[in-house]
Amino acid sequence: MVRVYVPRDTTACALGADGIAAAIQLQAARQQREIELVRNGSRGLFWLEPLVEVETSDGRVAFGPLELEEVEQLFNADGSPNTGHPRYLGLTEEIAWLKKQQRLTFARAGVIDPVSVSDYEAHEGFAGLRRALTLSPQQIVDELKASGLRGRGGAAFPAGIKWQTVLDAPAIQKYIVCNADEGDSGTFADRLVMEADPYQLIEGMIIAGLAVGADKGYIYLRSEYPKAHQILNEAIDAATAAGYLGADILGSGRSFYLQVRLGAGAYICGEETALLDSLEGKRGMVRAKPPLPALRGLFGQPTVVNNVLTLAAATTVLAKGGAFYQDFGMGRSRGTMPFQLAGNIRRGGLVELAFGMTLRQLVEEFGGGTASGRPIRAIQVGGPLGAYLPESQWDTPLDYESFAAMGAMLGHGGIVVFDDTVDMARQARFAMEFCVAESCGKCTPCRIGSVRGVEVIDRIISDEQRAENLTLLRELCDTMEYGSLCAMGGMTPFPVRSALTYFAEDFER
């Protein structure tokens, strides 16, 4: 029997994977050939989706991007994959775009059946949890500290310190909350983990619970991710049945219960305190700090709030040791980062690499330049609050400190490319307009400042007292940065200032 893999994740299905899967089954029935169709997750090579893989004695071979009318030519008469097919790519693992990566968090993505516990176990799954069950809570936290893992959600706060704070906090009840409200433009790494390797997130949350003494966890999932929602719930049910969740984890006497809660459809709920308010059933609004969520978080109890990638990386740290993870990266940026290539890009998708490659290398070697074929003019890194970077900054190493030094940020690793037809004055306006739409409204600099920002940029574009309004815009950015309660208003000036500084000509037309 031939095993055929067709992804079931959001991107692949949007590009026709469900139709391809149905056509393969129909073709097999017509030819009276037995196949096993596995709906795996994507490997993140979105520019090749739908990517179909066929298992052979030499390994899995790939075809993509496959069209419906090309399914009929997929197999030879003897049932072997047709190596003369126009979409034949050879051995999947030998595809250069994939082979050049350093995959730790995404090592299983696209390889396994995402809802099969046995498949996950066969690919080193739950090894980190099994080791964690042999360690004390402090030993687990110490391992995380030794790894140098920092929060992958954007703030880059050391994960081990956050876990230590919750461990040390006295409380009868503690919580683990996963921030899966992935709202940054150009980002999809969290979604890919949940749709391609959900047990990794589940395992990471159980490990976090063991580390800090929490027996309840919640995944706060973006409501726009219905496939992730379905897959996570399937995986949680299967993990519970297999003894990895519930009252007695693998006979250890330790407990952990996990639920998925859908988000409120607001960007601001990606901010950890607004997320906690939303999870409690309130309107998602930013809380003042202190107190920190690690001390008074969900329902006023000590709470670990980490994003999907951070919790997923914790499984690698526990399975292979903090020293192993620490060996990747540079400076204070340790481990790997899943960079997500989007926008006007020829080869979009997920690239997991150790910190240190330059932005130019990433966009040119992996992204292949623009989809339009025109020169790149600007690259936005870190989501809608990230700076627009001109060519003079593309040789900067991709690590937290290097980007912070030039007033930019890596954030969640989203990279959006613009060609030379972009109007950067209008992109600056979009940044302010985004803040208008997504502000929770709690603080004046963000709520009112963003509205005034749109108005001021409109006057600049219309050539109304341009010099005075440019000065006013810069002063407004300062007020928003230093006066806002959270990063929503505090970082909106980043893209605006970068556009003003490096693309000034667009404000003078």
**Unreliably modeled segments:** none
Q: Can you tell me the overall shape?
A: globular
Query: What percent of residues adopt helix (DSSP H or I)?
Result: 25-40%
Please compute the radius of gyration using only Cα atoms. Answer: 24 Å
Structural class: alpha/beta
CATH class of the largest domain: Alpha Beta
Termini separation comes to 65 Å
Looking at CATH, the homologous superfamily of the largest domain is: NADH-ubiquinone oxidoreductase 51kDa subunit
Number of domains: 4
Q: What is the number of helices? A: 20
Work out the number of β strands.
16
Strand arrangement within the widest β-sheet reads: 2-1-3-4-5
Please name the CATH topology of the largest domain: Rossmann fold
CATH architecture of the largest domain: 3-Layer(aba) Sandwich
Q: Please report which band the strand proportion falls in: under 5%, 5-15%, 15-25%, 25-35%, 35-45% or over 45%.
A: 15-25%
Q: Summarize the biggest pleated sheet.
A: 5 strands, mixed
**Taking all residues together, what is the mean pLDDT?**
94
